[in-house]
Fold:
Amino acid sequence: MSSLLITGGRVIDPASGGDARADVLIRDGRIEAIGTGLDEEEIARFDATGAIVAPGFIDMHVHLREPGIEHAETIETGARAGAAGGFTTICCMPNTLPVNDSATVTSYIVQRAREVACINVRPIGAITKGSLGDELAAIGSMREAGIVAISDDGRPVMNARVMRRAMELAVAFDIPVIDHCEDLNLSAGGDMHEGRQSVRLGLRGIPSASEDVMVARDLLLAELTGARYHVAHLSTQRSIAMVEFAKSRGLKISCEVTPHHFAITDHELETYDSNFKMKPPLRCQHDADALIEGIVSGVVDAIATDHAPHPGSDKMQEFERCPFGITGLETALGLSLDILVHTGRIDLTRLVELFTTGPANILKLDRGTLAVGAPADVTIFDLNREWTYDVQQSFSKSRNSPFNGRRFRGGPLATIVGGEIVWTSFQETRE
Amino acid sequence: MAAKRTGLLDIESLDRTEIEAILERAHFFQPADNESYRRLESLRGKTIVNLFFEASTRTRVSFEIAAKRLGADTVSIAAQGSSVSKGESLVDTLNTLVAMRPNAIVMRHAASGAPHFLARHLQIPIINAGDGTHEHPTQALLDARTILDQRPTLEGLRVAIIGDIAHSRVARSNVHLLSKFGADIVLCGPPSLLPRELEQLAPGVHLAWEMTEAIRDADVIMMLRVQLERQHEAPMSAGEYFHFYGLRLEHLTLAKPNVIVMHPGPINRGRELSSEVADSQRSVILNQVGNGIAVRMAVLERILQ
Structure:
């Protein structure tokens, strides 16, 4: 394997608390040294002067649509979109066709990722067979085949007894349980956040309570079982407060938030543009503010995109007929810099933590750090380059982003996986 | 609001002067007693497509007569029997129609925001004839015309709108219109059909669960149809509903002596109002129907001429 010297960057490594100008020497796919005077002849160099050099970013919540829904995304295209967003590892949810509820499907994804993905892909297995919420999936076998967590994401586990059993098994297999918190009876038929905007637009609402009651239930079950429990795409003020409370009591609880939930609100739905339709829905300003506050205070453990590609034809319909979900891999860092860093709410170490050690600790991955000997996954980004997101240039197969045309300041410059540069902002964006 | 470019999507984005102009022009189109509507040629050579994805009698016929009275050619399409039932998407259906070069499309659709969605993708003016539970702008305009036939101004009027507010596009359009003219609006219905956020829909809106409270001193009472097809769970039994939210003659004594009773139709006698009220001197329900044509003539002329 090749060697690479990343020179002149500001190296931020939350795992060690490091934040200093240094060179990073990579050899044989691993971090060999960080410091100065590492230069040698005959070595490939990447000049990172003026940029931030961080551990490779991890997105613990994406949908890659393969197997089965390849017209929306594939492992290959989703991975390329991830690389362009600065991610070196992405974890794919099991709601494919078939659902990833067996070692066979898990092995297929792992194998396929090895063949075609330019970044690391780690599958998440289903909690229940077919994610139908009734019968537990083959959690142990999937664990052996390579899953890093279990979730029925896209759907909640409505039956509390089933959730309890899943958590008990998860403790035994040392794997976190991730829930998509939505009481389906309360949210039934809803297309957007229930509130002033839904009443005004005549769209059916999804109340915050549909998320909150499930978070509350799950926290109680996590206490009962001792499971490591993680709230996916947390979106409400009350859920943040409950997670904070559970953490203060010493439970093994974590949560993620998406950039779109802290960057924009239900006011964007004005034009009935289905690129603003997702689950959980865009909430109110006070919810977005609470998420940001949770990021600042440390309640939030990770930023995850919930990258959910849908082909244009599915999104070019009446709002209520459109599927839920938006793409997010390529805009996550730009949005986070915009809303969190340029505004002075958090510093860069905290930002990097949310994309690296945060998710790595939840999933117990041996990544998210620049420690000597660690896999050489590196994300290089800058803080000042102005750029405009053009969804037509996306590496994803789908175009359903609400951020098309948005101006950003700062974003990914290069993505390095196992010592190989898999993407840089200088290259042509599309083949 | 660029009504001429985008057609007419909702009342909320119209300004007061625009509404006044339409109402004034509609007044010009109102026929004298025992006469029919004027026959004009102002839209001669224009083609208007009436595209109704939801069942409608009065609105569709009203738009058709309005267009014909202005000399336009009209084509009316009901979704049943169209390519929609063969699985064609809404955008494809509209693109196909637009390729035939009509001058405007009048559309009713069960999905809120469907005309707004289309307006973003098509150049042709779209006139919203009711979108889901969002708005029904020409209904509010004809309601305003009907009130103004009885009262000198909308300002300061106390208007009670009673029934299934949550699912009513008529209520939303009326609230926006009446609020722009300074009316005092009381929305009344059972809690599950009266989300409290309605109070923030526009200035001058109040909510009431009790009908007697809503009707007291009212100048105008608008009853809404119980939209069973849009309710996913009945808020209460039909008998209980009529008992608490049905309008009966005895209620009218609480209102101003010259109160008028309105209903967008179709009415369900004995469900939201009693037969006696529907047929009483206070009812202007049939005036509303007549004004529908005059108002739609004014709207079509404004957008197409």
